[in-house]
Design brief:
mainly alpha, Helix Hairpins, Snf7_fam, coiled coil
């Protein structure tokens, strides 16, 4: 079992010693008070060092005994100052370690609470029921999709037809309309005109309104020749 496990489970000698000890907050407060006290002691020693240097400068070689005594005191103050620097470094390291330990303890405690809450939430959950529920949800989604597809399918309303058949029917309708229009056309009657009193310039061909073919056809040419023979006989 690790030291962390022993600490949190209350086992081992460290736990038995810490049962009656101060709380982390109390220990941190004591360490901060100690740091503040040592910082003030540093300021005092630095002031005394400056004062002893001033005394040594004042006496100099004129009063060697007094100058040397001042320098000795300065050395003792500097030694104490160095000791306080080391002590402050140790206390700072201990305070940071204690703060980190306290933070980790709170984090683990809160994580334990969260784990217990999750366990309580999951107590009434059955994995088999969850699988069945998810399967039911999937099936209902498939049914809903099929219903949506059926509603949106145009073939359900008979809208799908063969376009080729529709085009053939449309062409038949157009042809019927065209034939009907041709039957309704009334052709004008052939005008009756008298022949001129003297030969004049006659048309090369005689059109009839009942025919649409051009006068260059064989039948039309024969009719024209008959008409010319009659005119020639009349003129003679």
């Amino acid at each position: 079992m690790s030291k962390i496990s022993k600490f949190f489970k209350g086992g081992g000698s460290a736990a038995s010693k810490g049962r009656g000890g101060p709380s982390p907050q109390e220990a941190l407060a004591r360490l901060r008070e100690t740091e503040e006290m040592l910082s003030k002691k540093q300021e005092y020693l630095e002031t005394r060092i400056e004062r002893e240097l001033a005394v040594a400068r004042q006496h100099g070689t004129r009063n060697k005994r007094a100058a040397l005594q001042a320098l000795k005191r300065k050395k003792r103050y500097e030694k104490q100052l160095n000791q306080i620097d080391g002590t402050l470094s140790t206390i700072e390291f201990q305070r940071e370690a204690l703060e980190n330990s306290h933070t980790n303890t709170e984090v683990l405690k809160n994580m334990g609470y969260a784990a217990q809450a999750m366990k309580k939430v999951h107590e009434n959950m059955d994995l088999n029921k969850i699988d069945d529920l998810m399967q039911d949800i999937t099936e209902q989604q498939d049914v809903a999709q099929e219903i949506s597809d059926a509603i949106s399918n145009r073939t359900a309303f008979g809208d799908e037809f063969d376009e080729d058949e529709l085009m053939a029917e449309l062409e038949e309708l157009e042809q019927e309309e065209l034939n009907k229009g041709m039957r309704d056309v009334r052709l004008p009657s052939v005008p009756s005109t008298s022949l001129p009193s003297r030969p004049g310039k006659m048309p090369a061909c005689h059109f009839t309104f009942l025919m649409i073919k051009p006068c260059s056809s064989t039948r039309k040419r024969a009719e024209d020749e008959d008409e010319m023979k009659k005119l020639a006989a009349w003129a003679s």
